[in-house]
Amino acid sequence: MRRGLLLIDRGSHEDDVRQELQYICSKVKEKGNYHISDYCFLEVVPPYIEEGITSCLSAEIDSLTIVPYFLYPGRKVKAAVDSASKFQSKAKVKLSISKPMNMHKSLIALVDEKVQKTLALNNVTTQKNSVDVLVIGHGSKDPEARSALKYVADGLALMYRNVVYCFLEIEEPNIKQGIDTCAKNNPDCLVVVPYFLHKGAHVKRDIYEDLNPAIESSTIKQVLLSEHLGTDDKMVDLVLERAKEAER
Question: What was the pLDDT predicted at 192?
Fold first, then answer.
């Protein structure tokens, strides 16, 4: 049986985003034994959803699993699912649409891994229960998106001294408020985690516009910035798990 898998990402002008998606797709194809694995975008830049689905179907596959590659179950995910669903009546093969990349224990483990790597790179040997963590999410008007970030923060709170979450835009607490809340806990070391899938504009530039001045005006002794989620194998495995759930 020739199976295909298609990731639907939000979309970005950054080349790093395409490179990360290409890596995820290649690993998914290899580990999941798919005939084809590719990506498309909901908006911003092509290939858009119609082009992505059409391209996959042209590979003469027997089934296509569509995975919304989003960390939050908000409006963007609903738009992606609605757009993909329209193709079922036109396609001669079965289309399955998975859940997005949220509310899964592997995301907690991945953020924990990013924090530990950051501490090690900076020669910080402090025990977990003495370290504070600030998780920065994107922000959304959909209340379910906040629940998705809170799920990760609550899971980390079982391991670290204090865990706070905040948002880059749209909703509060914003980054300044997040740093201020962390400062009230008087941490010896604070690790800031950009909770983003890609090294796009938000991770490269936007976060720093609010984060740097907030840190400079705070009383926190040591602030370290971790990597974003990126191309970690845990993300590959989560894509495969979501795909298998849909295919069943």
Answer: 98
SS3 (DSSP) at 74: coil
Confirm whether pTM is higher than 0.70.
yes
CATH of 105-225, one of 3.40.50.1400, 3.20.20.140, 2.30.110.10, 3.40.50.280: 3.40.50.1400
What CATH topology corresponds to 3-100+233-247?
Rossmann fold (3.40.50)
Phi first, then psi: give them for residue 37, nearest 5 degrees.
-140, 125
Location of each CATH 3.40.50.1400 domain in the chain:
3-100+233-247, 105-225
3-state DSSP of the chain: CCEEEEEEECCCCCHHHHHHHHHHHHHHHHHHCCCEEEEEECCCCCCEHHHHHHHHHCCCCCEEEEEECCCCCCHHHHHHHHHHHCCCCCCCCEEEECCCCCCCHHHHHHHHHHHHHHHHHCCCCCCHHHCEEEEEECCCCCHHHHHHHHHHHHHHHCCCCEEEEEECCCCCCEHHHHHHHHHHCCCCCEEEEECCCCCCHHHHHHHHHHHHHHHHCCCCCCEEECCCCCCCHHHHHHHHHHHHHHHC
Say what percent of the chain tops pLDDT 90: 89
pLDDT in tens, 109-153: 999 999 999 999 999 999 999 999 999 999 998 888 899 999 999
Lay out the sheet containing 63-68: strands in order across. Answer: 36-41, 3-9, 63-68, 94-97
Alpha carbon distance 16, 91 (integer Å): 32
